[in-house]
Specification:
The chain has 10 helices and 13 strands. The protein is an alpha/beta fold. The longest helix is centred in the first third of the chain and has 29 residues.
Length: 293
């Protein structure tokens, strides 16, 4: 049963006139008649009765018409969806993100994209940076929002999507609490809680490098894989830390936040995708985020 035969049948069922339908379908009348005959042979029963009074649907034709209209609509929708998927306007995106990217960045990107492509589905999951790299390489994620820097991964394409300042956080009641700005050397001798190296080696090494250049060899008393946990440790008086500004100001805690007067690198969040990923909708999202506003 061919798609064009069903379309021709529905046209004749509407007009009950082979001549009029042939003009609407841009077919010759003999070609239209052959299509209807082929459809009737395929079904095994006549769909039209033709006599001097004109053309009318048989009982079988009336029964077939209703479901044929539904089937044609679904086929048309299937055709459009296939085209949308090929154009990157339909599909499902598996997206991983670190907790700080989940505050505002990822929701904003998803909302912006769904305004243009409301039929795209997202499966989102909070995943630590190092785990994201592995999942992207193993095709368990399509897009990752992770903490930079990361070691060079040739199989991934990574672009920076957010830069923000690092701030110092100290417990309430600490000698530096309440200061709007501090120099890093003022943290000399303090116990530190830092982001765990196994979860984001590049970010951890960047922090220890910043402290080293300020003449500080941090005494790390505890580490954490989540910014919220790290700040809770500071809040509990375990130590002091350096964290991205968004993480410090987003969480409800009693820690004191100070800007850093030293000239230090900003913290960055990157967006990553596997170069082997060929899914159109995934690249559509990647390009839409990477494009300048």
């Amino acid at each position: 049963m061919e798609f064009r035969h069903i379309r021709s049948f529905l046209s004749v069922a509407e007009t009950l006139n082979f001549g009029k339908s042939s003009r609407q379908l841009n077919l010759s009348q003999p070609a239209l008649s052959l299509q209807i005959k082929a459809l009737e042979e395929d079904i095994g029963v006549p769909l039209f009765k033709r006599n001097r009074q004109g053309t009318a649907l048989t009982a079988a034709g009336v029964a077939f018409r209703h479901d044929a209209e539904i089937a044609l609509d679904r086929l048309e929708l299937a055709k459009r969806k296939a085209q949308w998927a090929s154009d990157g306007r339909l599909g499902r995106i598996r997206l991983g993100f670190i907790s700080t990217a989940g505050y505002e960045l990822v929701p904003q990107m998803i909302r912006k994209f769904r305004k243009r492509f409301p039929d795209v589905e997202f499966a989102i999951k909070r995943v630590l940076t190092e785990q994201q790299l592995q999942m992207l390489e193993e095709d368990q994620l399509d897009i990752g929002f992770l903490r930079l820097p990361v070691e060079r991964v040739d199989s991934l394409e990574i672009t920076t999507v957010l830069r923000e300042k690092l701030v110092a956080v100290v417990p309430a009641g600490h000698r530096l609490a309440g200061k709007d700005a501090i120099r890093l050397r003022e943290l000399q001798g303090e116990p530190f809680v830092l982001y765990a190296r196994e979860h984001a080696p590049g970010f951890h090494d960047m922090l220890t490098g910043i402290l080293s250049r300020a003449g500080i060899v941090p005494k790390v008393v505890q580490s954490a894989g989540e910014m919220s946990t790290l700040i809770s440790l500071v809040d509990a008086g375990v130590g002091v830390s350096l964290v991205p500004n968004s993480a410090a100001r987003r969480l409800v805690s009693r820690v004191s936040i100070s800007t850093i007067d030293d000239k230090i690198p900003e913290s960055e969040i990157g967006m990553a995708i596997a170069r082997t990923n060929k899914t159109p909708v995934v690249w559509q999202f990647y390009e839409s985020v990477r494009a300048p506003a």
